[in-house]
Amino acid sequence: MSAMTSPTPSRARHNPPRPVSPTSWSSRSGDGSGGDTTPFDRWVIDAEAIGASTAMQTVMAQTMAPYLVDPTHIERAGRSPCVIRRARLGPLALLDCEVPDLFSGRTSVDDVCADQLLVTMTTAGQQVVEQESRRAVLGPGDIFVVDGGHPGVCRISDRIQSHTLVVPKSLVPENSRLPDKLPAGSPTARLLGGYMRLLVRELPSLPAATVGAATRAAVALLELITVGEEYAAASQPLRVALLPQVLRYIDSHLGDTEMTTSTIADSNAISVRTLHAMFTATGESVNAYIRRRRLEGSRQELISQPNRKVIDISRRWGFKNASHFARVFKATYGIAPLELRTETAIAPASEA
Questions:
Q1: What was the pLDDT predicted at 103?
Q2: According to a count of CB atoms within 10 Å of the terminal CB, is the N or C end of the chain lower?
Q3: Do residues 18 and 55 touch, judged by C-beta distance below 8 A?
Q4: DSSP code at position 343
Q5: What is the pLDDT of residues 148-191, one digit of tens each?
Q6: For residue 159, what pLDDT is reported?
């Protein structure tokens, strides 16, 4: 790991500047033992050292886009290093970055960069990005798409971590307006961002024969960035992907008497129409699912908690009115709540 270790601050500040070469601030990942098969290249830049801003510009141009780094806050004591890892996935590049605090820079355009999109998701910290009329504050889980054909600005006040997919524009549908931001709670950000996290985490151990399939899956998901959020959420594949999450949300809020289709949709960043469409495919409406799960929970508790009052159990499972609870319970199970409790209490005694 010594090749990745930056010079100590004292040596970096008192030695005269020297020409920046790739081997002085970049290295392949691994410890030299030959046992590391990770596909990531890795650069570590000592942000305290003289020439750090130039080194950062060089690496960013090589991995993302031409970048003019503001040197004002670079090359000072107390800075943590800048770490960039890159893996190639066919026509795509996947980046995992840790960028120091008090960083700002501006992208420029060249022939290669102009044909690329940079799909960037912040995973920790916060950054402000601007490009033409689009401006966004990005927190964890938020995604912004940088068009390499136009200059942009990035400002970071605290150290951040991010994942980025560098994508040829030829792989994305043409004539599509890029979104201002894909919020962390939106269906597209959850699906695409979740897959980016998965790639960063699992790619080193992924069998070589499956990398092509993983790349094709990424390309397919990238189409989501060029369609409207409502259209994306309404598409069948995304509805299927989001349904387990919605079911988990409902199951964890069954005791909330204020839960409605609107609150469910808002909490999962989808429309009420999309929510109903998701359940149509299951053959059960949203409200029918909620009622069934509440009745199942209350029935089990009536049996397992014989000393708890029926009215308390009904309220605990989200029924506002005890009479309404008794009616729907009997309509479903053919027996009233009190009768069920009486029968289950008598059964063990008669068996004895």
A1: 67
A2: C
A3: no
A4: H
A5: 888 888 888 778 899 999 999 888 776 567 777 888 888 888 88
A6: 84
Helix axes 286-304, 337-351, angle to 10 degrees: 40
Q: For the residues 69-92, what does the mean pLDDT come to?
A: 77
- Write b or e for each residue in 293-322: b if 16 or more Cβ atoms lie within 10 A of its Cβ, otherwise e: bbbebbbebbeeeeeeebeebbbbbbbeeb
Angle, helix 187-202 to helix 211-222, in steps of 10 degrees: 160
- CATH class belonging to 2-227: mainly beta
**Position with higher pLDDT, 298 vs 14:** 298
Q: Which residues contact 38 (CB under 8 A, 6 or more apart)?
A: 29, 30, 87, 203, 204
Q: Do the Cβ atoms of 196 and 162 come closer than 8 Å?
A: no
Kindly state the tokens that stand for 132.
């033409």
The pLDDT, as a whole number, for residue 273 is 79
**Cα distances (Å, whole numbers) of residue 179 to 69, 135, 192, 257:** 25, 10, 14, 36
Tell me the CATH number of domain 287-351, given options 1.10.10, 1.10.260, 1.10.357, 1.10.1670: 1.10.10
SS3 for 318? coil
